[in-house]
Design brief:
Shape: globular
Number of strands: 6
Structural class: alpha/beta
Number of helices: 8
Order of helices and strands: HHHEEHEHEHEHEH
Helix content: 25-40%
Strand content: 5-15%
C-alpha cells in the first residue's frame, strides 16, 4: 500500500498538539513526520555533513534572533527586524563577502536602494538585471501578440544568464528580488551559490502575493472556484 502523500497544510490538529512538535503529539494518516522517519534520519545525516551543518546552524540561530521577548515565553515573542536586515546578518554569520543581487528591471528602483544598503553594510555587491544579454524574445519562439509591448523589440528575461554571470563572478550568496514566476525557478536551478529571496513578484498586489490569501473571504473570494 502506498504511503499517503504529505498534506501538512490541512493538518486537522492544533499546532500545540501536533506530532511534529511533541513525541506524544497527534498525527493524521498523511503526516510526513510519522510516515517518513527514514527520510528524517537521512536528512539529519545530510545536515551534519560538511558546510551544510554550519549553514543550517546559523539559519536556525538567525530564526531565533528574528524575535525579541523570547525570555518571556512563546506568547510574548514579537518580530524584531525586517527580512533585508536578516539577510545582511545571515551573510555576516556565514562570512560571505560577495553577494549577487539578482533582480527584475521592474524593480530597478528598489534594486538600486538594496544595492546601496548592502554596500553600506560592507558587502561586495554584484547586481544583475533580468534583461541582461539583450536576447530577443523571438529566440523563444514568441509571437508579437505574446510580448508585453507587441510591435516593439523586446528582450527576454534571462535567468540562466543571470545565474551563469553570478557563478563566474563567484558570488557567495544570491539574493533574488522580484523575478517572474518560472524565471526564479530557472535561476535557482542554475545558480551554484546558496540563494535566498528578498521579495517575489506580484504585479497586481505591489509584490505582496499574500494579500490575495488574506482576502480570500472578501475581494479574492473568486479563488474559491476553479479559475
Amino acid at each position: 500500500m502506498a504511503t499517503p502523500q504529505p498534506q501538512c497544510a490541512i493538518c486537522p490538529y492544533d499546532w500545540s498538539d501536533r506530532f511534529c512538535r511533541y513525541d506524544q503529539g497527534k498525527a493524521p494518516p498523511h503526516c510526513p513526520s510519522l510516515r517518513h522517519q527514514d527520510l528524517t534520519a537521512e536528512s539529519i545525516t545530510a545536515i551534519r555533513t560538511g558546510d551544510v551543518r554550519e549553514f543550517a546552524r546559523q539559519a536556525s540561530i538567525q530564526e531565533g534572533e528574528g524575535y525579541c521577548n523570547r525570555e518571556k515565553g512563546y506568547g510574548a515573542v514579537r518580530p524584531a527586524k525586517p527580512r533585508i536586515v536578516e539577510i545582511i546578518e545571515f551573510a555576516r554569520r556565514m562570512n560571505y563577502r560577495k553577494v549577487a543581487l539578482v533582480f527584475c528591471v521592474g524593480l530597478r528602483r528598489e534594486a538600486k536602494v538594496v544595492h546601496k544598503i548592502f554596500e553600506t553594510e560592507g558587502l561586495e555587491v554584484i547586481s544583475i538585471a533580468c534583461k541582461v544579454g539583450r536576447v530577443p524574445k523571438e529566440t523563444l519562439g514568441l509571437s508579437e501578440a505574446q510580448k508585453v509591448a507587441p510591435g516593439s523589440p523586446e528582450s527576454m528575461c534571462n535567468p540562466i544568464l543571470q545565474a551563469l554571470i553570478a557563478n563566474r563572478h563567484q558570488s557567495q550568496f544570491n539574493v533574488l528580488l522580484g523575478l517572474c514566476v518560472g524565471h526564479d525557478s530557472l535561476f535557482l536551478r542554475y545558480a551554484e551559490a546558496p540563494c535566498t529571496v528578498l521579495a517575489v513578484k506580484d504585479r497586481l498586489l505591489g509584490h505582496n502575493p499574500l494579500a490575495a490569501v488574506y482576502q480570500y473571504e472578501s475581494y479574492y473570494r473568486y479563488l474559491k472556484e476553479k479559475l
